[in-house]
Each structure stands twice: as structure tokens, then as C-alpha cells.
Amino acid sequence: MTIRATVTGVGHYLPDRLVPNSEFEATLDTTDEWIRERTGIERRHFAAPGQTTSDMGARAALAALAMAGREPGDVDAIIVATSTPDLTFPSAATMVQKAIGMTGGFAFDVQAVCAGFVYALTTANALMLAGQAKRVLVIGAETFSKILDWTDRTTCVLFGDGAGAMLLEIEEGDGSARDRGILATDLHSDGSFKDLLYVDGGISTGAPGVLKMEGREVFRHAVAKLAQTAEAALEQAGLSGADVDWIVPHQANLRIIKATAQKMGVPMERVVVTVQDHGNTSAASIPLALSVGVGRGQIKRGDLLVMEAIGGGLAWGSVVLRW
Ligand code: UT7
């Protein structure tokens, strides 16, 4: 008998304000055509002025609990992946805990920027296999609109706000790759690439700062590293690209998503793509795509999924999971 962290629910939340590419044409030297062609992005959602990461995370969490038929009191732990928590502390996760009315258990944040959700899933899996928790809510939630430089056309058109959540529960498997649940994880980071993607503020500067990115360089690393980490996790599980039903990639750029799928030998018909509607929502992008993919009827029980992501750090990684 093998213990597996298995998905029983997913849910998401997107703020009301929907901004098409054309809205940027009024204030920046950019076009809808450039943004679509270079990124695949057509629109994104932005949070209302008072709306926070934990507000959105709590809504996504309640949707995931509803799908699983569970109450907040059934949950042992909450992990929120975010780089845009409401405050420096306490964690967004403890704010979600309060917002959904959960009084027991424990909650904390994981900060690995766009790779945050695969880091949080890996952490949840490790806690569950170690017997520390039986039911864990893993949430990716971001308000990148609060850290964008609205005068920088090379970054501000790329990002969006939103939240996605997943409930993981312990189930028993036979130890084979046919088991449902998390089958393998693979994480990496390399702090020497800090200057490629960072926020130029924080505690040390006294101001929150804005996002800075060397887009072309990050693109190069993404194409090289994403297929590598996905293939390493598949190999760990005794599987290959041929076994994959769905790649659920971090949604930063359609060209990166296509190049990664091609390297893995997986056709685009087996890739969940939401970048056109959400833009890059950092740690929220994978759980948002999962929830939308389930809603569209793409992802079904028993399907083999690979999630892969890269972002600031650089930090990157992947998770192989049978739905
Ligand atoms: O989630 C974290 C990970 N992040 C990523 O994965 C992002 C990775 N990078 C990318 O997705 C792409 O590199 C970008 C979408 C950021 C940029 O696309 P690119 O094809 O790499 O363009 P580029 O940076 O090479 O720029 C090409 C041209 C430049 O003009 P010049 O120097 O050739 O005259 C840019 O100034 O496009 C210009 N440009 C724009 N033009 C119109 C850059 N941004 C814009 C814009 N509108 N918004």
C-alpha cells in the first residue's frame, strides 16, 4: 500500500475587471496585434482597488471545497503560493484561513514566484506523506497589478490577477504509476539569475517596488528548462511524454508553451491553454488553468497531468499527477 496525495476538488476566482489588449493602446506605444503575436495574450483580469490576494484565494478555496463536498473544518492545512501577499505579514494563508472560517490546523505561504504552485504542491505532498496532514488546500493567488510599472510596455501588458485552489486528500494506491494522485515532483532554483526577473522594492527599500524583467533572457531559460524538469519528473514516475494526457503549463507566453510541448513530443491538443484569457497570473496560473480545464471537460478522472513552471529566482519545477 502506498499513500498518495489525491485531488478531490478544484476551483478558481477571477476579478470582475476584464481588460482587453486594446486598452493599453491609449497609454503605451503598443498594439493588440503585437501582444497577441508575441505572447498569445488577448485579455486579463485586474483586481478592484481594495481587493486583495487573500480575498481572491478564499473565494477559489471555497469553490474547491464545494467541488470536493468538504467543509473548511475538514481541512488540516492551507498553503498559499504567492509573491503578492496582502501584507508583509501575517501570511496570506492565515488570512484565507480566517476568511473561510477555518479555526484549526495550520496555514503558511510559499514564495517561489511563477513556480510557486509547483513548489506548494510539492510541499503539501511531502507534509501528507510524512503524516502531518490528511487534507491540504493548495492555493495560487496573485495581484500582480499592484507591482506593475504602467509605463513599461515590456512588462505591464503581460500580467493579470486571479486565484486557483486545489484540495488534496490522502488516498491509498498500489505504488504504481496507475495510482491517482501526485506521482512525482522535481524542483530547481538558481539565485545567480536574480537580475533577470525581480521586484525592485520590499522591506530593504521601504517601498513595494515594481516588476523588472529581461524578457528575452527569461524566455530562453524557460524553453531550455521546462521540458527538462517535466521529463525528469515523468522519468521518476516511470513514464514519458507519450503517457501524458494533459500538460498544464504555467501560462506566461503561448510561444513558450508550444516550444515546451514540442520538445516533449506532446501535441497542442493535449495542452491546457488559458493564457489568452488570463495573461500571466504567476503562481495562480496553473491552478486557474486546471480549474478551467476541468470546467471545459478537458481533464477527466484517471488522466495523467504534467504541470511545469518557471519564474523569478530563477525557480522552476514540475509535478506529475494522475487526476
Ligand atoms: O512568468 C515568469 C516567466 N516570464 C516569462 O516567461 C516571460 C518570458 N518572456 C517573454 O514572454 C517574451 O520575451 C516577451 C513577451 C516578454 C517579449 O517578447 P520577445 O519576442 O522576446 O520580444 P523582445 O523582448 O525581443 O522585443 C522585441 C521588440 C523590441 O523592440 P526593438 O528593440 O526590437 O526595437 C521591444 O522593445 O518588441 C518591443 N516590445 C514591444 N512592442 C510593442 C516590447 N514590448 C512591446 C509591446 N508592444 N508591449
The secondary-structure element order is EEHEHEHEHEEEEEHEHHHEE
The largest β sheet comes out as:
5 strands, mixed
Rg for CA atoms: 18 Å
CATH fold descriptor of the largest domain: Peroxisomal Thiolase, Chain A, domain 1
CATH superfamily of the largest domain: Thiolase/Chalcone synthase
Q: State the low-pLDDT regions, or none.
A: none
CATH level 1 name of the largest domain: Alpha Beta
Count of discrete structural domains: 2
**What is the overall number of helices?**
8
The overall pLDDT, averaged over residues, is 97
Widest sheet: strand ordering: 1-7-6-4-5
Count of extended strands: 13
Small molecules in complex: oxa(dethia)-CoA
What would you call the quaternary organization? single chain
From the 3D coordinates, which CATH architecture of the largest domain would you assign?
Answer: 3-Layer(aba) Sandwich
Task: State which percent range the strand residues make up.
Answer: 25-35%
Which geometry do the CA atoms define?
A: globular
- Percentage of residues in helical conformation: 25-40%
Return the structural class: alpha/beta
- Cα separation of the termini: 19 Å
